[in-house]
Design goal:
Pathway: Cofactor biosynthesis; pyridoxal 5'-phosphate biosynthesis. This protein is of the alpha/beta class. The protein is built from 6 helices and 12 strands. It binds glutamine.
């Protein structure tokens, strides 16, 4: 089966590391900066960086509405850190003019872990990721403060002051983590996303085939009627 093509939104952030992690899973990966490039990918990674800046750049590059439309239409997307914030339906501690993509029925709090723990690393056990816990790197990270009924919690912090906080979620074709798996050389989180993209692509192909079949049937009925 041809590997899926996954884009990495390349307005800001650690794009190269995500491209490398995606390629390590066997996917094709390319940067996405324009609506035309967005239209050509089977899935999209929204990297970490600064969500307010990324939102502004997306607007300036004419990408904000295409991104919102693509996610609404079912394009699989994985948001890491700032990318999680961009996908969240509700953002706390955001400036009033912050723009986002939305689609994920969660409330996230920006810079949630507090100033004393700006950045930290810990092991997080993730549902759907086989093997030992992933080494999670948090950099001025958000956490998920509330998640809607269709959101599956994939992982929480265990122990410490943030014990129990949700840091990885999935809702349908959307995945988000508070942390940065692209920085660790472990591509298991990317592999989980690539698998989801494969399934979504296969489903789309089946839908196309069956609607083409239905169309042909309707046509022949039309002729015989
Ligand atoms: N604090 C950043 C924001 O609010 C996210 C940090 C990151 O992506 N590493 O966008």
């Amino acid at each position: 089966m041809t590997p899926p093509t996954i884009g990495v939104l390349a307005l800001q952030g650690d794009v190269r590391e995500h491209l490398a992690a995606l390629r390590a899973t066997g996917a094709r990966a390319r940067p996405v900066r324009r609506p035309g490039e967005l239209a050509e990918v089977d899935g999209l990674v929204l990297p970490g960086g600064e969500s307010t800046t990324m939102g502004k750049l997306a607007e300036r590059f004419g990408m904000l509405q295409p991104l919102r439309d693509a996610v609404r239409a079912g394009l699989p997307a994985y948001g890491s850190c700032a990318g999680m914030i961009l996908l969240a339906d509700t953002v706390l501690d955001a400036p009033a003019d912050q723009v986002t993509i939305g689609g994920l029925d969660v409330t996230v709090r920006r810079n949630a872990f507090g100033r004393q723990v700006d950045s930290f690393e810990t092991a997080v056990q993730l549902a759907g990721v086989p093997g030992p816990p992933v080494h999670a790197v948090f950099i001025r990270a958000p956490w998920v403060e509330a998640a809607g009924p269709d959101v599956e919690v994939l992982g929480r912090v265990e122990g410490g002051p943030a014990d129990g906080k949700i840091v990885a979620v999935r809702q349908g074709r959307l995945v988000a983590t508070s942390f940065h798996p692209e920085l660790t050389g472990d591509s298991r989180v990317h592999a989980l996303f690539v698998e989801l993209v494969r399934e979504a692509t296969a489903m789309r192909a089946r839908d196309h085939a069956s609607s083409a079949g239905a169309g042909a049937d309707a046509g022949s009925e039309g002729r015989t009627a």
